[in-house]
């Protein structure tokens, strides 16, 4: 299980190409999606979390923890954990927090979206943070509350119930998964700022502070966890630091398919439909960006990989033969050259339907500049008459637009 913060950990806001998260995505979908849990743990409210998803190439997590560990939701439908809310109500009264914080002119209220039932959030100058935290804790304790005050990113001050926070939310999740007999073998916690510190205090958790971690987190580490070999400070930024930690702690494969310079050379000794799908869409991205070294070689390979009897139904419901698809691919070599064009796949789930055949369901995303598009995709892949080193044959692909994420280009393909 990976439990990762988003801003400046999974998501690098200083990398307009989003390369490190895209590397992580390809690794996760090729090697981990089917038997691991992806948990995002963010300070953002549901509103700002959904906004970030529209801006960045993010995968869909299995579990989403928002508002600094005060809101836990499950699955794509983001079903809230009601049991967690009960825990948070202990010695908490939002009205009292509001009443008392109003008396501090140094506290500037954050936007309305970030004020949540179990979280009050403000901006405070760095030099004032410690003093205000101390005073507020005393006052709120006198009023009968038991709160936790967290300073993050050198500017954000969150007031939460004592039992809340990213660490407590993770501990709660561990307990719940254990009761269901689903406790993961390993947990890797990933973060960059003050509200992530707690994640590293949960028993049996490996931790990575990404290279670009904030001063407040590094200071917490120096004071509290300096000699803990289970926590590292990566020398790579953001998601690249997460990949580095997977390798450092020996948690599993740590080579992203995105790092393979020649996808045709990436041969396997067994059939692996998830890997095949990840690889194919990496190829599509490179092809359209004009980054393939010997296009002819790839084209010949495509004619083999795409069964000529195969059928593609595009998201407008228009039918195309695989021969047409290959022909169109040929024509669009390099058509996105110099553009910010990226492709990634999400929630790749293969099901073996008979000894030769897999049905693979996934979400196929692409982004050009700021605009994201997404299609539910079902593909049938077959191993009939081929060796693992040749890869699986695609025999059918069917796509449906995801709600609100359509294109008006009717010739759309794949
Ligand atoms: C996110 C939230 C903000 C919070 C901060 C630190 O930026 O939007 O409300 O204060 O994380 O936890
Ligand atoms: Mg962060």
UniProtKB/TrEMBL annotation:
Q: Which EC number(s) does UniProt give? A: 3.1.3.24
Q: Name one Pfam family in it.
A: S6PP
> What GO molecular-function term can you cite, just one?
magnesium ion binding
Quote the pathway field. Answer: Glycan biosynthesis; sucrose biosynthesis; sucrose from D-fructose 6-phosphate and UDP-alpha-D-glucose: step 2/2
Cofactor(s) recorded for this entry are:
Mg(2+)
Which biological processes are named by the entry's GO terms? sucrose biosynthetic process
Q: Which InterPro entries match?
A: HAD-like_sf, HAD-SF_hydro_IIB, HAD_sf, NTF2-like_dom_sf, SPP-like_dom, SPP_C, Sucrose_Phosphatase, Sucrose_phosphatase_pln/cyn
Q: Which UniProt keywords apply?
A: Hydrolase, Magnesium
The reaction(s) this protein catalyses: sucrose 6(F)-phosphate + H2O = sucrose + phosphate
Top-level division of the source organism's lineage: Eukaryota
Q: Provide the Sucrose-phosphatase C-terminal domain boundaries.
A: 273-402
Q: What does this protein do?
A: Catalyzes the final step of sucrose synthesis.
Q: PANTHER family attached here?
A: SUCROSE-PHOSPHATASE (PTHR46521:SF15), SUCROSE-PHOSPHATASE 2-RELATED (PTHR46521)
Query: What NCBIfam families does the annotation carry?
Result: HAD-SF-IIB, SPP-subfamily, SPP_plant-cyano
What the record says about family reads:
Belongs to the sucrose phosphatase family.
Q: Subunit comment for this entry? A: Homodimer.
Can you name this protein?
Sucrose-phosphatase
Q: What is this organism's lineage?
A: Eukaryota, Viridiplantae, Streptophyta, Embryophyta, Tracheophyta
